[in-house]
Write a structure and sequence with these properties.
Radius of gyration of chain B: 17 Å
Distance between the termini of chain A: 39 Å
Bound molecules: adenosine-5'-triphosphate, magnesium ion
Order of helices and strands of chain A: HHEHEHHEHEHHHH
Number of helices of chain A: 10
Strand content of chain A: 5-15%
Structural class of chain B: alpha/beta
Strand content of chain B: 15-25%
Number of strands of chain B: 10
Oligomer: heterodimer
């Protein structure tokens, strides 16, 4: 009990010591923390943007039109009837019949196969119904399934190629963000490691004296680790602030853009969990950077 | 308490600083280590505190062979020795109290006990009233006494001092040496390196005389 209390008080002492040391040179510390915060905020902010884009592309799936091609045997009135039926579903916003003879005219005009078509005895094109779903992407699956199950349906074709392309681009963007995250994480470790290295240099004499009176490596190491932790957590807090501010700045133009597309999607901000992550990652990187610096440089300092 | 057996020390860059030194200092004894500049006095003390290691021979401190103390155990080893330096080696951004408390904080002593010990040590060197001052506001002699208080605060069995009166006037020097004498009176083993032959001739302790890296005179009896 007593040893635990003493151990805890030692850590509290080290933590307050680190905060005091950071506050002691506000300008220098602030610049260090700002650099680290930017290195944390850039990947975290990009991640938020990419996540938003992915969520948004998810809502778009519901808005994508698709085409139901009917069997050749379905005649004009039956097709009209079916389009009417589909239009009446409440997960459908619009359903237009693309008449097979209209389709043939269009095809003849645009495809350049006009002569070839003349050789055919019959119109080779079926009736088609263009459906615009009303619901979310979860409802969409049900809708597609229902339409596919209809006896008159030959084929349901989702017109989602562009969406898949967008997804692929977003996937790529996410990879890029991952790589950026790793690189900037390394940069944070280097920045903190270098700061701690300078701090060790500044306190060389103190370290020698503590070694002379019997301070263990752990005892000497601890304040530097806490200093790194302090920088990291401070930078994490600042990074969260930067992202919140940045999202605040893009929120209203983004909403205006969404409205133009008739979407009521709202930009997702930083969740509490994200912020905790940011602080945690900042603290960890700070501790790690300090640990590396300490391991490399404390050994070199020996009293003589 | 200290035993040297045919100890040689050659610095990587330099010539031989100690050339076969043997002596022993008994538990509870106090002795002065004298000799001309460059004789190897500081080197000898550094071997005791494991700041340097001997090139040849054996150094035993408190019955431990220093050759068998690995690097990572040096801190623990040093905690049984109080070291006093000519240049005090105080931390200038910490108060007198915190300086003296340093070795006790390292051994994570309970706060109440730490307070008691620090104040007792400061009282012994007559500086209790300065506990909240910073070292630079003290005179050189007072700073030296803070250094001594730090060396004895953890109640080590052995205190070594390298020219503790180097920059002090004769009156202050005598006072400092008497202070060491008082710690010796209560059983601490003390070894002090000094040039000041005149001063130590006025005190009755044993003398070890080093010259050009060798023990000379009656003190040279091997242990
Ligand atoms: N770190 C070192 N590297 C190389 N040579 C050294 C080193 N320290 C001491 N020496 C040499 O070892 C010899 C003994 O030095 P030492 O400091 O032990 O003498 P000293 O008796 O303490 O002298 P002083 O009375 O001037 O303090 C000297 O010739 C010195 O030049
Ligand atoms: Mg010397």
């Amino acid at each position: 009990m007593d040893t635990i209390a003493r151990y805890l008080s030692l850590h509290v002492e080290n933590m307050t010591g680190a905060v005091v040391r950071v506050a002691d040179r506000p300008l220098g510390s602030l610049m260090t923390i700002l650099v680290i915060a930017i290195a944390l905020a850039v990947p975290a902010g990009l991640r938020v943007m990419v996540d938003n884009a992915r969520a948004l592309s998810g809502t778009w799936q519901g808005a994508a039109d698709f085409t139901v091609y009917l069997e050749m045997a379905v005649d004009d009135p039956a097709a009209e009837d079916l389009a009417l039926q589909i239009r009446q579903r409440n997960d459908v916003e619009r359903a237009e019949l693309l008449d097979r003879s209209d389709a043939l005219v269009e095809f003849r005009a645009y495809s350049g196969f006009g002569e070839a078509l003349d050789l055919l005895a019959e119109n080779p094109l079926p009736h088609a119904i263009i459906v615009r779903p009303a619901g979310t992407s979860a409802d969409l699956d049900q809708l597609v399934e229902d339409l596919d199950a209809l006896e008159e349906t030959a084929l349901v074709q989702l017109d989602t190629e562009w969406l898949e392309r967008l997804r692929a681009i977003l996937e790529l963007a996410r990879r890029v963000v991952d790589v950026t995250t790793v690189l900037l994480g390394l940069a944070v470790i280097v920045v903190i490691g270098n700061t701690i290295r300078l701090e060790i240099g500044n306190r060389r004499e103190e370290i020698e004296i503590i070694k002379l009176v019997g301070g263990s490596d752990g005892y000497i190491r601890r304040p530097f680790l806490y200093l790194g932790l302090c920088y990291g957590v401070g930078a994490g807090i600042l990074a969260a602030l930067i992202i919140v501010l940045g999202l605040g700045l893009v929120a209203s133009p983004a909403r205006a853009l969404m409205e133009l597309y008739g979407s009521d999607y709202r930009l997702a901000g930083l969740s509490l969990a994200d912020m905790a992550w940011l602080l945690g990652v900042g603290g960890f990187l700070g501790w790690a950077g300090a640990g590396i610096a300490v391991a490399r440089h404390l050994r070199e300092i020996e009293p003589s | 308490m200290i035993r040297f057996e045919n100890v040689r020390k050659r610095y990587p860059a330099g010539r031989e600083a100690l050339r076969g030194v043997s002596f022993r200092l008994e538990r509870g004894e106090m002795a002065f280590l004298t000799g001309p500049s460059g004789a190897g006095k500081s080197t000898l003390l550094k071997l005791v505190a494991l700041i340097e290691r001997p090139t040849r021979g054996t150094v035993l401190v408190a019955s431990q062979n220093t050759a068998r103390v690995p690097r990572r155990r040096i801190p623990q080893f040093r905690r049984q020795i109080g070291i006093v330096f000519q240049d005090h080696k105080l931390l200038h951004d910490r108060t007198v109290f915190d300086n003296v408390a340093l070795p006790l904080m390292i051994s994570s002593l309970r706060r109440r006990e730490l307070r008691g010990r620090v104040r007792a040590a400061l009282d012994q060197v007559g500086l209790l009233r300065y506990e909240n001052q910073f070292p630079l506001s003290l005179s050189s002699g007072e700073q030296q006494r803070v250094g001594i208080a730090r060396a004895v605060a953890s109640r080590p069995q052995l205190v070594i001092a390298d020219e503790p009166t180097g920059n002090l006037d004769p009156g202050l020097s005598l006072e400092i040496m008497r202070l060491f004498g008082r710690f010796n009176d209560v059983g601490t083993t003390v070894l002090i390196a000094t040039h000041d032959l005149e001063l130590i001739s006025r005190m009755g302790y044993r003398r070890l005389y080093l010259e050009a890296g060798s023990m000379a005179g009656p003190a040279a009896v091997p242990g």
